[in-house]
Amino acid sequence: MQRRDFLRLAGLATAGHSLSAQPPAPGMNMPMGPLPSIQPEISGTEFNLTIAPVTVELAPNRIVSTIGYNGTAPGPRLRMKDGVPVTVNVTNNTDTPELVHFHGLLIPGDVDGAEEEGTPFVPPHGQRSYKFTPTPAGTRWYHTHTMSMDDLHRGSFTGQFGFLVIEGGPNPGNFDQEHYLALRDWEPYFTDQPMDNDDMDPALPRPEKPAVLDTRPPGLEVTTDIYSINDKALGAGEPIRVRQGERVMFHFLNASALENRHLALPGHRFNVIALDGNPVPVPQAVDLLQLGPGERIDCWVEMNHPGVWILGAPQDPVREGGLGIVIEYANQRRTPQWVPPPPNSFWDYTVFGKPPSKPAPTEKLDMVFEKIPRGAGKFNSFTVNGKAYPHEQEFLLKQGARYRLTFHNRTDDAHPLHMHRHQLEIAEIYGKPTSGIIKDTVVVPTYGRASVDFTADQPGPTLFHCHIQHHMDYGFKALLRYA
């Protein structure tokens, strides 16, 4: 099915059709009109997850078969308390071994959910319990961490993902509604065409661009034409209904396996208060958001521009392919409108940071990333410092030491880089120094360079990888070990 055919089925421009949303938190004003269908929430100290086949109705005439948690995709939102031990019981009702990764948590490797760190698989038609103490507070998430290789029905290409909220952080302030919105792509396929890469501002410096580019024919990459926010494509669910003057809190997650994505809401600004669940030093209002796969943004929007608007991807093919949701003001009945964000809008982590006030760590590590066209047969492969995974004894950490890790991206992609079980403080990106921005996933721009600082305080094997599934599968990862 082509993108345009899908749009006709989704009824994007049909009045009364838009995407499902989450209800406000208890005690807040309820939105007007009927509540949309929502993903369930589970809270407490014991959680049960069942991995099994599910169907997702993205639009009335578009139903996707995939693997999910507890019968849905996204799976249930898990709500835990910072520092309070929990048990997550996982039942695997599929024919393949599975893993559940708790993304952004500071927990031991044997329960983190990565095979490379020593987490045991949940066997086919078997069970396993994860016992850990969740920390730190903030918006986290959970998802499968299996390899997929050339099987686009495994790993993060499936519907195995969900929000994980750890309570106990700073009060985000007063707001009237709260929504958890996960960006997704569906039905991926291989292509030898250039990727539809939602990259950074093209004017950014490219210090790692080689003097002579590799002109060998590229291998197959993965792409898609069909998108959603949560389980609905734009035009296929209920709108988020608001009143003028309300403050609406959004928790965004890019649960995609494929691409970095942007979001905009015409006539409104996003007041960003946290990145990857961690409060930013300098909250800022911005016109445009960017989320690489694995990233989260917590922000609130003041509803001060009445109308019926599309909150969605600025790229027309992506938005028209389903990546959007309708924001409908009270007493407004009209066709949802889209207006591109202001010219020269681009995402910049450093606007949320402070000037550096401390000297750089004396312990330093460098990682150089390169892509080898068709290095894995018909697929591209990736190297770190010129070597393939696992880089035995190459990245050794001294427990308790503070490190500066510098990424040298010598590829023509912007990569979302994730380090398990540690928090990263951005020290330099886009050629700009900064401090105080704490993340677990950082998008390093095309031919760009970035430095992050972290403390080696989580003993045990630590997985580092690109959060684009196909890149990770074909070599874009490394294992850091404690000496």
Give an account of the 3D structure.
The chain has 483 residues and is mainly β. The protein has 3 domains: 34-170, Cupredoxins -  blue copper proteins (Immunoglobulin-like, Sandwich), CATH 2.60.40.420; 186-349, Cupredoxins -  blue copper proteins (Immunoglobulin-like), CATH 2.60.40.420; 363-482, Sandwich (Immunoglobulin-like). It has 4 helices and 34 strands. The protein has helices at residues 3-10, 109-112, 316-320, 469-473; strands spanning 41-43, 46-59, 62-69, 77-81, 86-92, 100-103, 126-132, 138-144, 161-167, 177-186, 189-191, 221-223, 226-229, 240-242, 247-254, 261-263, 270-275, 278-286, 289-291, 296-302, 308-312, 324-329, 363-376, 379-384, 396-397, 402-409, 415-419, 424-429, 432-433, 438-439, 441-444, 449-455, 462-466, 477-482. The strands form 8 sheets. Strands 23, 24, 26, 28, 29, 30 and 32 form a 7-stranded mixed beta sheet that branches. The protein has a 6-stranded mixed beta sheet with strand order 13-10-15-20-17-18, with no helix packed on it. The termini are far apart.
Q: List segments where confidence is low: pLDDT < 50 over at least 5 consecutive residues.
A: 1-37
Distance between the termini: 52 Å
Mean pLDDT, to the nearest integer, reads 91
Task: Classify the fold: give the CATH topology of the largest domain.
Answer: Immunoglobulin-like
CATH superfamily of the largest domain: Cupredoxins -  blue copper proteins
What is the highest CATH level, the class of the largest domain?
Mainly Beta
Largest sheet: 7 strands, mixed
Strand content: 35-45%
Helix run count: 4
Q: Please tell me the CATH architecture of the largest domain by its name.
A: Sandwich
Compute the number of structural domains. 3
Please identify the oligomeric state.
Answer: single chain
Helix content: under 10%
Q: Count of DSSP E strands? A: 34
Overall 3D form: globular
